[in-house]
Q: What sequence folds into this?
Protein backbone atom coordinates (compact mmCIF):
# COMPACT_ATOMS: atom_id res chain seq x y z
CA UNK A 1 0.00 0.00 0.00
CA UNK A 2 1.31 3.43 -0.93
CA UNK A 3 2.01 5.75 2.00
CA UNK A 4 0.29 8.95 0.89
CA UNK A 5 2.22 11.13 3.33
CA UNK A 6 5.67 10.54 1.82
CA UNK A 7 5.51 8.26 -1.24
CA UNK A 8 5.00 10.44 -4.29
CA UNK A 9 4.97 10.19 -8.07
CA UNK A 10 4.81 13.91 -8.81
CA UNK A 11 5.97 17.27 -7.58
CA UNK A 12 5.39 20.85 -8.69
CA UNK A 13 8.05 23.52 -8.22
CA UNK A 14 8.51 27.09 -9.42
CA UNK A 15 11.77 28.77 -10.36
CA UNK A 16 12.85 31.77 -8.28
CA UNK A 17 12.37 35.17 -9.88
CA UNK A 18 14.65 38.21 -9.84
CA UNK A 19 12.06 39.86 -7.60
CA UNK A 20 12.96 37.37 -4.84
CA UNK A 21 15.04 40.15 -3.28
CA UNK A 22 11.74 41.76 -2.27
CA UNK A 23 10.35 38.61 -0.63
CA UNK A 24 8.72 38.68 2.80
CA UNK A 25 10.91 38.00 5.82
CA UNK A 26 10.48 38.07 9.57
CA UNK A 27 13.92 39.60 10.06
CA UNK A 28 16.43 41.07 7.62
CA UNK A 29 19.45 38.75 7.64
CA UNK A 30 20.60 39.67 4.17
CA UNK A 31 19.45 39.95 0.57
CA UNK A 32 19.03 36.62 -1.26
CA UNK A 33 21.56 35.90 -4.01
CA UNK A 34 19.48 34.90 -7.05
CA UNK A 35 22.29 33.03 -8.81
CA UNK A 36 22.97 30.92 -5.74
CA UNK A 37 19.28 30.30 -5.21
CA UNK A 38 18.89 29.11 -8.80
CA UNK A 39 21.76 26.64 -8.32
CA UNK A 40 20.28 25.38 -5.06
CA UNK A 41 16.83 25.09 -6.61
CA UNK A 42 18.22 23.04 -9.51
CA UNK A 43 19.94 20.72 -7.02
CA UNK A 44 16.69 20.31 -5.10
CA UNK A 45 14.75 19.45 -8.26
CA UNK A 46 17.44 16.99 -9.35
CA UNK A 47 17.10 15.08 -6.07
CA UNK A 48 13.32 14.91 -6.45
CA UNK A 49 13.78 13.51 -9.97
CA UNK A 50 16.37 11.02 -8.76
CA UNK A 51 13.55 9.19 -6.96
CA UNK A 52 11.77 8.62 -10.28
CA UNK A 53 9.09 11.22 -9.64
CA UNK A 54 7.85 13.50 -12.41
CA UNK A 55 8.67 17.10 -11.51
CA UNK A 56 6.91 20.05 -13.13
CA UNK A 57 9.03 23.21 -13.03
CA UNK A 58 6.86 26.26 -13.45
CA UNK A 59 8.33 29.53 -14.72
CA UNK A 60 9.20 32.35 -12.35
CA UNK A 61 6.49 34.87 -11.43
CA UNK A 62 8.12 38.27 -11.27
CA UNK A 63 4.99 39.90 -9.85
CA UNK A 64 5.11 37.64 -6.79
CA UNK A 65 8.51 37.58 -5.05
CA UNK A 66 7.59 34.66 -2.77
CA UNK A 67 6.10 32.46 -5.51
CA UNK A 68 9.05 30.03 -5.34
CA UNK A 69 7.51 28.81 -2.07
CA UNK A 70 4.73 26.91 -3.82
CA UNK A 71 3.77 24.77 -0.82
CA UNK A 72 1.80 27.63 0.72
CA UNK A 73 -0.64 27.72 -2.21
CA UNK A 74 -2.28 24.30 -1.87
CA UNK A 75 -2.72 21.06 0.03
CA UNK A 76 -2.32 18.10 -2.31
CA UNK A 77 -3.88 14.76 -1.35
CA UNK A 78 -4.53 11.60 -3.38
CA UNK A 79 -8.23 12.44 -3.76
CA UNK A 80 -7.77 16.07 -4.78
CA UNK A 81 -6.25 19.42 -3.96
CA UNK A 82 -7.37 22.27 -1.74
CA UNK A 83 -6.32 25.76 -2.76
CA UNK A 84 -5.23 27.82 0.23
CA UNK A 85 -6.01 31.40 1.27
CA UNK A 86 -2.68 32.97 2.32
CA UNK A 87 -2.51 35.08 5.44
CA UNK A 88 -0.09 37.47 3.71
CA UNK A 89 -2.18 39.61 1.31
CA UNK A 90 0.73 40.06 -1.11
CA UNK A 91 0.70 36.31 -1.78
CA UNK A 92 -2.96 35.89 -2.78
CA UNK A 93 -2.15 36.00 -6.49
CA UNK A 94 0.15 32.99 -6.17
CA UNK A 95 -2.90 30.79 -5.56
CA UNK A 96 -4.52 32.06 -8.75
CA UNK A 97 -1.36 31.12 -10.63
CA UNK A 98 -1.25 27.59 -9.19
CA UNK A 99 -4.96 26.71 -9.45
CA UNK A 100 -5.02 25.99 -13.23
CA UNK A 101 -1.89 23.85 -12.91
CA UNK A 102 -3.55 21.63 -10.32
CA UNK A 103 -6.86 21.55 -12.20
CA UNK A 104 -4.98 20.02 -15.15
CA UNK A 105 -3.77 17.27 -12.81
CA UNK A 106 -6.72 16.66 -10.47
CA UNK A 107 -10.39 16.05 -11.17
CA UNK A 108 -11.30 17.58 -7.82
CA UNK A 109 -9.85 20.94 -6.76
CA UNK A 110 -11.49 22.68 -3.80
CA UNK A 111 -10.89 26.20 -2.46
CA UNK A 112 -10.68 27.88 0.93
CA UNK A 113 -13.12 30.73 0.39
CA UNK A 114 -12.66 32.59 3.67
CA UNK A 115 -13.07 34.66 5.71
CA UNK A 116 -10.33 32.58 7.37
CA UNK A 117 -6.74 32.21 6.25
CA UNK A 118 -4.53 29.15 5.88
CA UNK A 119 -1.15 28.42 4.27
CA UNK A 120 0.36 25.08 3.31
CA UNK A 121 3.43 25.69 5.44
CA UNK A 122 1.23 25.19 8.50
CA UNK A 123 -0.05 21.77 7.38
CA UNK A 124 1.67 18.47 8.17
CA UNK A 125 -0.02 15.43 6.64
CA UNK A 126 0.75 12.13 8.35
CA UNK A 127 -0.55 8.62 7.65
CA UNK A 128 -3.41 9.05 10.13
CA UNK A 129 -4.30 12.75 10.31
CA UNK A 130 -3.71 16.27 9.06
CA UNK A 131 -2.05 18.48 11.65
CA UNK A 132 -2.61 22.21 11.15
CA UNK A 133 -0.69 24.76 13.18
CA UNK A 134 -2.31 28.05 14.08
CA UNK A 135 0.14 30.83 13.28
CA UNK A 136 0.36 34.41 12.07
CA UNK A 137 -0.59 33.04 8.62
CA UNK A 138 -3.25 30.47 9.58
CA UNK A 139 -6.26 31.20 11.79
CA UNK A 140 -9.02 29.14 13.44
CA UNK A 141 -11.53 29.86 10.69
CA UNK A 142 -9.09 28.66 8.03
CA UNK A 143 -8.49 25.42 9.93
CA UNK A 144 -12.23 24.87 10.36
CA UNK A 145 -12.94 25.39 6.68
CA UNK A 146 -10.18 22.96 5.71
CA UNK A 147 -11.77 20.32 7.94
CA UNK A 148 -15.17 20.91 6.34
CA UNK A 149 -13.65 20.39 2.88
CA UNK A 150 -11.56 17.27 3.51
CA UNK A 151 -14.30 15.55 5.52
CA UNK A 152 -15.63 14.18 2.23
CA UNK A 153 -12.31 12.42 1.63
CA UNK A 154 -12.25 10.87 5.09
CA UNK A 155 -9.46 12.95 6.64
CA UNK A 156 -9.24 14.04 10.25
CA UNK A 157 -7.86 17.53 10.91
CA UNK A 158 -6.28 18.33 14.27
CA UNK A 159 -5.55 21.94 15.20
CA UNK A 160 -2.26 22.55 17.03
CA UNK A 161 -0.28 25.68 17.80
CA UNK A 162 2.92 27.08 16.35
CA UNK A 163 5.47 28.45 18.86
CA UNK A 164 5.56 32.22 19.30
CA UNK A 165 7.94 33.84 16.82
CA UNK A 166 7.95 30.85 14.43
CA UNK A 167 6.52 31.63 10.99
CA UNK A 168 4.95 28.30 10.07
CA UNK A 169 4.22 25.03 11.88
CA UNK A 170 6.56 23.14 9.53
CA UNK A 171 9.34 25.61 10.21
CA UNK A 172 9.80 23.48 13.33
CA UNK A 173 8.87 19.98 12.16
CA UNK A 174 8.71 17.51 9.30
CA UNK A 175 7.53 13.99 8.60
CA UNK A 176 10.18 11.24 8.44
CA UNK A 177 7.92 8.21 8.03
CA UNK A 178 4.47 6.96 8.99
CA UNK A 179 5.32 6.96 12.68
CA UNK A 180 8.17 9.45 13.03
CA UNK A 181 8.45 13.23 13.20
CA UNK A 182 11.57 15.42 13.13
CA UNK A 183 10.93 18.32 15.50
CA UNK A 184 12.53 21.05 17.49
CA UNK A 185 12.39 20.52 21.24
CA UNK A 186 10.31 23.69 21.67
CA UNK A 187 7.55 22.41 19.40
CA UNK A 188 7.57 18.86 20.73
CA UNK A 189 7.25 20.25 24.27
CA UNK A 190 3.72 21.38 23.39
CA UNK A 191 2.62 17.74 23.28
CA UNK A 192 1.33 17.98 19.72
CA UNK A 193 3.18 14.82 18.63
CA UNK A 194 1.88 12.48 21.31
CA UNK A 195 1.60 9.00 19.79
CA UNK A 196 4.43 9.55 17.31
CA UNK A 197 8.11 8.74 17.51
CA UNK A 198 10.01 12.04 17.63
CA UNK A 199 13.61 12.76 16.67
CA UNK A 200 14.79 16.15 17.92
CA UNK A 201 16.99 18.52 16.00
CA UNK A 202 20.30 19.05 17.75
CA UNK A 203 20.59 22.11 19.99
CA UNK A 204 21.51 25.11 17.87
CA UNK A 205 20.33 23.36 14.70
CA UNK A 206 16.63 24.08 14.96
CA UNK A 207 16.57 25.32 11.35
CA UNK A 208 17.16 21.72 10.26
CA UNK A 209 13.61 20.81 11.29
CA UNK A 210 12.14 21.87 7.95
CA UNK A 211 13.04 18.83 5.86
CA UNK A 212 10.96 16.57 3.62
CA UNK A 213 10.61 12.83 3.27
CA UNK A 214 10.29 12.27 -0.47
CA UNK A 215 10.17 8.59 -1.36
CA UNK A 216 13.49 7.02 -0.31
CA UNK A 217 15.21 10.28 0.66
CA UNK A 218 15.04 12.69 3.56
CA UNK A 219 15.99 16.03 2.00
CA UNK A 220 17.28 18.52 4.54
CA UNK A 221 19.12 21.85 4.52
CA UNK A 222 22.90 21.59 4.53
CA UNK A 223 25.00 22.85 7.42
CA UNK A 224 23.47 20.95 10.33
CA UNK A 225 25.87 18.04 10.84
CA UNK A 226 24.65 16.82 14.22
CA UNK A 227 21.03 16.55 13.11
CA UNK A 228 22.10 14.93 9.85
CA UNK A 229 24.09 12.38 11.84
CA UNK A 230 21.05 11.61 13.99
CA UNK A 231 18.93 10.96 10.93
CA UNK A 232 21.56 8.78 9.29
CA UNK A 233 21.97 6.81 12.52
CA UNK A 234 18.20 6.23 12.54
CA UNK A 235 18.48 4.63 9.09
CA UNK A 236 17.35 7.45 6.81
CA UNK A 237 18.97 8.14 3.43
CA UNK A 238 19.77 11.84 3.85
CA UNK A 239 20.38 14.28 1.01
CA UNK A 240 21.46 17.84 1.84
CA UNK A 241 20.71 20.99 -0.15
CA UNK A 242 22.19 24.41 0.49
CA UNK A 243 19.43 26.62 1.87
CA UNK A 244 21.28 29.81 2.79
CA UNK A 245 19.33 31.99 0.36
CA UNK A 246 15.83 30.64 1.00
CA UNK A 247 16.51 30.90 4.73
CA UNK A 248 16.83 34.67 4.33
CA UNK A 249 13.12 34.59 3.44
CA UNK A 250 12.13 32.09 6.15
CA UNK A 251 11.96 29.33 3.52
CA UNK A 252 13.03 25.71 3.71
CA UNK A 253 12.86 22.33 2.00
CA UNK A 254 9.11 21.77 2.26
CA UNK A 255 8.28 25.26 0.98
CA UNK A 256 9.80 24.60 -2.43
CA UNK A 257 7.45 21.92 -3.73
CA UNK A 258 3.94 20.52 -3.84
CA UNK A 259 4.19 16.72 -3.52
CA UNK A 260 1.55 14.16 -4.41
A:
Amino acid sequence: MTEHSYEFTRAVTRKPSASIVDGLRAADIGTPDLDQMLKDHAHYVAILRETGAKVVELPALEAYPDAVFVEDTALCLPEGAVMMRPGAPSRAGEVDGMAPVLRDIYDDVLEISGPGFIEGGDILTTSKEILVGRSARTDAAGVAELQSLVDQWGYSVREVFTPEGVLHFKTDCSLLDAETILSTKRLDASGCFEGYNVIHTSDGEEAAANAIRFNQFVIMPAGFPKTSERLCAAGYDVREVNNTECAKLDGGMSCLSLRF
